[in-house]
Design goal:
- A hairpin with a 7-residue loop joins β9 and β10.
- By secondary structure, this protein is an all-beta fold.
- It is globular, with a radius of gyration of 13 Å.
- Strands 2, 4, 5, 6, 9, 10 and 11 form a seven-stranded mixed β-sheet that branches. Strands 1-3-8-7 form a four-stranded antiparallel β-sheet, with no helix packed on it.
- 0% of the residues lie in helices and 55% in strands.
- It has no helices and eleven strands.
């Protein structure tokens, strides 16, 4: 399975971006798809996740009300809609997939850079 993250770019504060995470290969054993981010000089942090079958969502407090995670299982694609972006949202955003049988994330995309200017 390979994950391809896309949709990053440069946006002004208050703007929006939608990230996509497209998967190639089988996804029937997926439990969660998550988005993470890593800002320069900082550790990677959790942003949001969605149950691949259940659709149940979970968000980090710092994105609640601004970001929305979604999925299209027919397209094997997950999305992260990011609104009201802030300069502190600047980071490389990664998508990842966790298998039902796993306790961690098993597959990672290559990351897409989001830069928010003030």
């Amino acid at each position: 399975v390979q994950l391809q993250a896309s949709g990053g770019g440069l946006v002004q504060a208050g703007g929006s971006l939608r990230l996509s995470c497209a998967a190639s290969g089988r996804t029937d054993s997926w439990y969660f798809v998550g988005w993470f981010r890593q800002a320069p000089g900082k550790e990677r942090e959790f942003v949001a996740r969605i149950g691949w079958r259940s659709g149940i969502t979970d968000y980090a407090d710092f994105v609640k009300g601004r970001f929305t995670i979604a999925k299209d299982t027919a397209k094997n694609t997950a999305y992260l809609q990011m609104n009201s972006l802030k300069p502190e949202d600047t980071a490389i955003y990664y998508c990842a997939a966790r298998l039902v049988s796993s306790s961690g994330y098993d597959y990672w995309g290559q990351g897409t850079l989001v830069t928010v200017s003030s």
